[in-house]
Write a structure and sequence with these properties.
The structure holds 2 protein chains of 2 kinds. By secondary structure, chain A is mainly α. Helix content of chain A is about 50%, strand content about 10%. Chain A is built from 5 helices and 3 strands; from the N terminus they run αβααβαβα. Chain B has a domain of about 130 residues: Hypothetical protein af1432. Chain B is about 65% helix and about 5% strand. Chain B has 12 helices and 2 strands; from the N terminus they run H-H-H-H-H-H-H-H-H-E-E-H-H-H. In chain B, strand 1 and strand 2 form a beta hairpin. The longest helix of chain B is centred in the C-terminal third of the chain and has 24 residues. The chains are: A mainly alpha, B mainly alpha. At the A-B interface, helix 3 of A face helix 11 and helix 12 of B.
């Protein structure tokens, strides 16, 4: 698993039930947009992520285009935790991840 | 003493003694060793270190940093004997100039360089990007990409926002001359970002295009300002082929 994918999964796992749109993931991971969308598309292919369009009531009220929101599936959250725990984290990445994960 | 160019006198005048004299001496020394050399633009070579020194002074850095800016190419591209720079200007200035040389020979091991060497590097690159139209096209592209990938983020980490913005604007305008122009030093998206995205979305599977374009339209809408939208768009273009590959791997 690439470091970029790990960063995205960690960002999503911080609040596994929360929905986030692409720009929020860019901001949280510090990754460029061109990196984020291929990753979320692939995670969606795997069934780790699901996405939906924003509720019309929200974006119409705010007068803007509708957002696409991403959320970890239950299965995806579980698999992401297992996969991240298996990854050997290089020293310089320490501090990025979750507490209690093997260094 | 020979008369100094007004720009150099202005820079030196910002520093109390002995800083001002140090800056003047650094200019005289650099102008001597670069004598007869020219930039690709046809300007005397000394114009480049003077601009680098002016940038550093403009950032509020101290006299030794400005001297290092004035002297930064003396050790590499001239007949100046090794050791003379250190003997004339001392260890601090010599260490900065050498630090920059090491950085360039290593092909950029930015982690090991000190903060002041990195700032020197950024000031050097800023003037090189301002005059990049004089170098061959292939080199323009290589330098612009390196600037976007490495030096723009570095300037951000060092908190040098004006340098970061200028480097980014100059690189984007060089790489995508038909999409961006420089206007008062910042990037203007000439066409609406969405139009650029629509064109390059042709790489994506036809049935997926509308979804992604709509998603990005919302993201563009949420971004504050033209520059942020331009950056988002350029990054997306860079990742479009990868996204296309991923989407073609998707099941029905």
């Amino acid at each position: 698993m690439t470091l970029q994918t790990q960063l995205v999964l960690r960002a999503l796992l911080q609040r596994p039930t929360r929905e986030q749109y692409g720009l929020e993931l860019c901001a949280e991971t510090g990754l460029p947009s061109g990196t984020i969308y291929p990753i979320v598309a692939r995670l969606e292919n795997f069934g780790w992520l699901e996405s939906r369009w924003e509720d019309p009531n929200e974006h119409i009220t705010e007068g803007r285009p509708r957002r696409r929101y991403y959320r970890l599936t239950d299965d995806g959250a579980e698999q992401a935790r297992v996969a991240l725990a298996r990854v050997h984290r290089p020293t310089r990445m320490r501090g990025f991840g979750l507490a209690g994960e093997p260094a | 003493m020979t008369t100094l160019p007004p720009q150099v006198a202005e820079i030196a005048g910002r520093y109390p003694e002995p800083g001002a004299r140090l800056v003047e001496r650094a200019y005289v020394f650099a102008a001597f060793w670069h004598r007869g050399q020219t930039r690709r633009s046809g300007d005397p070579y000394i114009s480049h270190p003077v601009e680098v020194g002016a940038t550093l002074a403009g950032l509020g850095l101290d006299a030794p940093m400005v001297c290092a800016g004035l002297l930064h190419d003396v050790g590499e591209d001239t007949d100046c004997p090794p050791g003379l720079l250190r003997a004339e200007f001392g260890d601090e200035v010599a260490a900065l100039v050498e630090g920059l040389l090491v950085l360039e020979r290593d092909g950029g091991s930015l982690e090991s360089a000190g903060r002041r060497v990195l700032i020197l590097k950024l000031a050097d690159r800023l003037h090189n990007m301002r005059t990049i139209r004089f170098v061959p096209r292939a080199k323009q592209e290589r330098k612009s990409r390196e600037t976007l990938d490495v030096l723009v983020p570095l300037a951000g980490r060092l908190g040098l926002d004006t340098v970061k913005e200028q480097l980014e604007a100059l690189s984007l305008a060089t790489l995508y001359p038909d999409r961006f122009t420089i206007h008062n030093g910042s990037v203007r998206g000439l066409r609406v970002s969405r139009r650029v995205l629509t064109i390059s979305a042709v790489l994506l599977p036809a049935e997926a295009r509308a979804r992604w374009l709509e998603e990005w339209t919302a993201e563009l809408h949420a971004l504050p300002g033209r520059r942020a939208r331009a950056r988002f768009t350029v990054q997306l273009l860079a990742g479009m082929a990868r996204l296309a590959v991923v989407l073609r791997q998707a099941g029905p």
